Amino acid sequence: MSVNYDGRVFRPLNNPPGSPTGLYRQRGNLIWAEFGGGRLHFGRLVGTCDESGTITATYCQLATDGSVTAGSLRSVPGRTAEGVLTLTEHWHRLDGSKGISVIEEVDAALAPASPTTIEVAQPR
């Protein structure tokens, strides 16, 4: 499946409330994304995409509790029965944990806010 990801917005399958949302960009085979929302202040993903639409990337994210998570993933495109674009993410974090998540394309209006809008608590 050949896919152009530029400008597409993804969120966890079935669009649970308060879920992080990611805005993907693509130039040639280069992929990057910004994501945030829910328990995440923001995150970044950078990688490449092959002819089949499979993404190989590295990511890092900053949670609202201050924790940082980083790792790599391989995302394979697919479609729901309704024809919605999905990505099955096979991820492996630097802490050794691994798993599979599925995200689906959602309306572009759900794109994450820019990280520059994050309010940071000032030290006392």
Mean pLDDT: 90
Identify the strand order in the major beta sheet. Answer: 1-2-3-4-5-6-7-8
User: Gyration radius, to the nearest Å?
Assistant: 14 Å
Largest sheet: 8 strands, antiparallel, barrel
- The strand count comes to 8
Question: Helix and strand string, N-terminal first?
Answer: EEEEEEEE
Straight-line distance between termini = 53 Å
Oligomer: single chain
From the helix content, strand content and strand pairing, which structural class follows?
A: mainly beta
Please tally the helical runs, counting DSSP H or I stretches of 4 or more residues: 0
Into which percentage range does the β-strand content fall?
over 45%
Identify low-pLDDT runs. none
Assign a percent range to the helix content: under 10%
Shape: globular
Topology:
Elements: E1 9-12, E2 21-27, E3 30-37, E4 40-49, E5 55-63, E6 68-79, E7 85-93, E8 98-106
Antiparallel strand pairs: 1-2, 1-8, 2-3, 3-4, 4-5, 5-6, 6-7, 7-8
What report would you give on this structure?
- The chain contains no helices and eight strands.
- It has 124 residues and is an all-beta fold.
- The chain has an eight-stranded antiparallel beta barrel with strand order 1-2-3-4-5-6-7-8.
- The radius of gyration is 14 Å and the shape is globular.
Which features does this protein show?
124 residues, mainly beta, eight-stranded antiparallel barrel, globular
Task: Write a concise synopsis of the structure shown.
The chain is mostly beta strands and 124 residues long. It is built from no helices and eight strands. The chain is globular and about 40 Å long.
